Amino acid sequence: MTEAVGFVVAKHHYLFCFALMLTGLYVMMSSANLIKKILGMNLFQVSVLLFYVSAGKVFGGTAPILKEGATLYDNPLPHTLMLTAIVVGVATSAVALSLVIRIHRDYGTIEEDEISTETREP
Amino acid sequence: MIAHLPVFFVLVPLVAAVALPLLCKNLPETGWAVTFSVCAMDLFLSLMLLSLVWSDGPMTYRLAGWEPPWGIEYRIDLFGAFVLTVVSAMTVLITLYGRTSVEKEVPGEKRSYYHALLLLHIAGLNGTVVTGDLFNLYVFLEITALSGYALIASSRMPKANLASFKYLMLGTIGITFYLLGVGYLYLLTGTLNMADLAERLAPLYDNPAVRAAFVFITLGLAIKFAVFPFHTWKPAAYGEAPSAISALLASTGPKVAAYALIRVLFSVYTPDFDYHLIPFRPVAMTAALVTMLAGSFMALAQTDIKRMLACSGIGQIGYILLGLAIGTEQGVQGSLIHILNHAMMKGTLFLAVGSVAYRYDTTTASHYVGMGRTMPFTAFAFTVAACSMAGVPGTVGFVSKWTLAMASLDAGYGFAVPFIVLSTLMSSVYFWRIIHRMYFEGDVVQRDNEAPAGLFLPTCAASALCLLLGLGAFVPLQIAGRTASMLLGGG
Questions:
Q1: How far is A61 from chain B (nearest CA, A)?
Q2: In which band, very low, low, confident or very high, does the pLDDT at B175 lie, cut at 50, 70 and 90?
Q3: Which residue of B has its CA nearest to A109?
Q4: Is the torsion defined by CA of B405, B408, B411, B415 positive or negative?
Q5: What Rg do the C-alpha atoms of chain B give, in angstroms?
Q6: Does the pLDDT at position B356 exceed 70?
């Protein structure tokens, strides 16, 4: 029991990230609304960002900016990598949203089940 | 100048992509001219690079002069140069073809944006092959993917937007899993450089995190690669895209995903790990065999010819995976040679189908009646490529099927051969249906309504390559063989 509690306390940030990831995946799969799917995708991507950033924390380290009197710094590399990943996520969301605008213009709806009914071959 | 060669492949298309809409918005013709000159330069430079790497060994380039592992390193060895040449060759043919097809499919004021997207896509493809850093690979895969989604949606058909959206959803899941796997590797070793990772991972192979990272990375790339359970995005995405874009995506997309997969398998993790420490071989073998059959079954059921070709492509991906699953030098050689051959075969098929769509605005297979007489050159190119898919000796398809079958038998996996034969038979069925319709059916209503020269010349050039590289297969086979031994020997 204490081992399980110790595990959760030590790795709580990883568990949180995975909970977010699974939530995001579930939202992507179960929503019929296309905008909600995009939100789920964002949630899924954010969980991986948090995974990297949280794992870059060094115990006893301060923010990775040179300061007098500081000996231990957090790892700045995950932060820079995740800045790139955030930009990628923004670009993906932008493309996805413009696709949804076009789908709405062509089909009049952004619910996936209604679109499938409309595109079914007669 | 030669030392800076690796970065040209990324820098030139990228700068051109940004400059094009800014400078050439009101000059629709320059978009094509710039794209074609970039592609032609890429082809010339990649051939030069191939000969350089063949004789002198791998070429590295340090971005901004920073030493690896702190800086990003571009590393081109024989495998990278090989795939780069394949990608450049297909891009040149498709850009030539695209000149005429774009006139019909993209309105004048949007054309500079279309070409900018195309150049971004090419920059992404080149960058994926050139880089030696795992996170850089993620960035380039995403550049390729995002421009791909936009290019698919550039079609005027409403279904294209939906197809692109579905592809976007699945593609993002895949690439995010890849990112997670790379995160595991980074946290375990502190480096993202592929060569450095290979050294640092070696003592960590029994760490479950290393194995989990392998699963995440290969799973993510498998979604891009469209292996069996993750193939659902492919028929719609390739079927609804404009003709030149389907050809481009079909001939370069899976190749670059295969490149990334093979790099992770052999240059980051060693063959020893893949085949002895984890059950990669049985899993990949099952996935490959199921994919081969599933692709062919799905293709049999399609009425739209572009969807049929896309499903057939799913089956062909199974062949590439089979060679990797076998894992011997001949197996990997078969995979590599199929990367080249499938690019040419599928490229030709999609270009031919696009020519028919240009003239007759249809991609339904039942409308191909009498095409043999109406569009003789296009039909002939289609037939050559179809024979190649069916593995007729003298064409490229035969070379890869033979190599893979021999590799299976030599390594003791003879049970794979009936699967190869069965999927070949099914390919023959669904291609013969089209060929029969083209040549042996229907009263001749219209003769010689061939597609314009800008369309059928690249198509015929691609089909000529299918024959030439099938008859003269010893050159690609030698390159593939040497690459395979380099990869398996820990390259």
A1: 17
A2: very high
A3: B162
A4: negative
A5: 21
A6: yes
Q: Give B51-102 pLDDT, tens digit per residue.
A: 999 998 888 888 877 777 778 888 898 999 999 999 999 999 999 998 888 8
Q: Is the ipTM of this complex over 0.85?
A: yes
Asked whether the beta carbons of residue B146 and residue A55 sit closer than 8 angstroms, the reply is: no
Instruction: Report how far residue B357's alpha carbon sits from residue B345's, in angstroms, rounded to the nearest whole number.
Output: 18
Summarize pLDDT for B292-343 with one digit per residue, the tens. 999 999 999 988 999 999 999 999 999 999 999 998 899 999 999 999 999 9
Q: What are phi and psi of B413, to 5 degrees?
A: -105, 50
Contact A88 B139 (CB under 8 A): yes
* pLDDT tens-place string over residues B226-270: 998 889 899 989 988 988 999 999 999 999 999 999 999 998 998
